[in-house]
Amino acid sequence: MNTNKKTMxxxxxxxxxxxxxxxxxxxxxETGLTPEIILQISEQKNEPVxxxxxxxxxxxxxxxxxxxxxxxxxxxxxxxNIVTYVKPKTDLNNTWEEVPNDIKNTFTRxxxxxxxxxxxxxxxxxxxxxxxxxxxxxxLVKQGVIYTDMESALREHEQIIKEYFMTCIPPRDHKFxxxxxxxxxxxxxxxxxxxxxxxxxxxxYFRSNAPGAGQFEHTLIIVEKGASLHFIEGCSAPKYSVNNxxxxxxxxxxxxxxxxxxxxxENWSKNMFNLNxxxxxxxxxxxxxxxxxxxxSKVSMLYPMSVLKGERARAEFTGVTFxxxxxxxxxxxxxxxxAPYTTSVINSKSISKDGGKAIYxxxxxxxxxxxxxxxxxxxxxxxxxxxSVSDTIPALVLLNDEVDIGHEAKIGRISDDAIFYLMSRxxxxxxxxxxxxxxxxxxxxxxxxxEYAVEMNNLIKLELEGTIG
Length: 469
Description:
The protein is an alpha/beta fold. The chain has two domains: about 10-300, no CATH class; about 420-469, no CATH class. It is about 25% helix and about 35% strand. It contains eleven helices and 26 strands. The chain has helices at about 35-45, 50-65, 100-110, 110-120, 140, 150-155, 160-165, 175-185, 415-425, 430-445, 450-465; strands at about 25-30, 85, 120-125, 130-135, 145-150, 190, 200-205, 215, 220-225, 230-235, 245, 250-255, 260-265, 270-275, 275-280, 285-295, 300, 305-310, 315-325, 330, 335, 345-350, 355-365, 375-385, 390-400, 405-415. Mean pLDDT is about 85; it is low at about 1-15.
């Protein structure tokens, strides 16, 4: 008998994702959340006075607001035990040769430099609280495209940042938006001028290494009239025995007749509380496409929102969630139809195993003036055993009758007959299950860039490994 056979996800090695670097830094704050810590962060960044005041006001709002009462239990998360700012031992670099070897090796293992060389127009790499590497192809710079870290943007494009920063997601939106406003650090700023089409994707990768720390990157993207962009976001972290927190913020502005695709694969470790907030405002004839894969974290609360502000604005959300042992992934999408002839499509798939909880929580609102709007919602859940949980919690608010709304939800288990058939064709039980799961998520995988589709298939294999017997 093989006593080393692994049977639960918490026993599995996550390979290159779980390799820890030494916890080394040039500066970090103490644990907790106080005005003094906020001032330390702002002083480290040499920020303008208005940003310091914004942080302090956000901190005040954070203390005024309660944790949302409707979500999963996050009482185990204690902000007083979280370090909110960890500056790595390097400044921003423009070449990989300048990045310290230990940090560079981490991103090399994750394939970031190779992907940049092969298929990306620009890359940003964040390590703990700061961006350590940023690049953009020269031809895009000549076209007026801006792609840089948020700290540089605050210095070099202050008026644009001041106009847009946390206007899409104000600190009063919820408690963790206020926390983000107080302690945000790192992230990317993208500006695509009118009529410019960026045919090759830009990518930012966020790596959290410090134990017991929070990562609070801010991403701000503006796609002007008639322009287009595909932006890719990757996230990962090694596992520690203490809780970590991710409370980033993504603000997207898609102007008239513009198009933005925002692709994400989140592969946080199982000690991470992922309380991220993402939102897009779409103007007349604009399009936002969300492609999302959520594989990691102990608890996730993530619901990308599309505000269809202009006539004929469109939103499409395609997402997959995989919840294993000890995980509660409460994810979904929100859409507000705020103008006539707007269209939205939500296609959500979830997988749960080993007692994991995968919850789809969605909200759709059609305003009184948003006549002739159309929305389609499809939620499919696959449970791999009889211990797991899968719930669908939709909320639909329709304030006029001239709308076309469809909602469909399916929950099921892998068929024993299908497993038997595949095994009769020579597959092992593990490979048979993996094949069925990959087929289930194929509509999401085909929407991802090739290297991310490969990563998602590898993550599925990792999640399923050793769960039988």
